[in-house]
Structure prediction request, 196 residues.
Amino acid sequence: MNSSHLKIITCMCVSVCIAVACNPHKQSPRVVFETPEGVITAEIYPEQAPVTAGNFLKLVDEGVYSNNRTVFYRVVRMDNQSGDVKIEVIQGGLSDRSAVEAIPHETTAETGILHLDGTLSMARSKPGTASSEFFICIGDQPELNFGGKRNPDGAGFAAFGRVVEGMEVVKKIQQGMDKDQYLIEPVPVTSIRRIR
Prediction:
């Protein structure tokens, strides 16, 4: 392959990348969490995490997270946990989670979505038990990724989105008074709705 062929291929690749980046149909869906403490806006990544993001968007679109059925109820800070592997998150979900089926576990190794500041991810016990409960990272949390040590099975947690506006609200919720990480007064989420 000569240099002129290489230049043509390079130009074609750049053109394709620009076209994809500028294509409005490729924009990630966005959802809004409405709470008394303020609004949190998050981008959801169904192309990278089709199972996890798809499940979350389905619950949003069906109104499962609306009608005062959702709360932020758990806060994890450096000052309210023990052990060697510490994290910082707020956790929320349905007051009645039994009605939602569990989904297969998508690892960060599969999706490439790492637990960075603002990452939205699924809470679980063992792999394949996540359904409706989610958490938001405060600061980078590499121990929640595949191979991380927060969960003994090493499979990490299934990340599927990221907060793009409202991290100040997330941090305010995290500072609420708790007992053993559970908020004394859970923060209601009046709705989670799609805005794009």
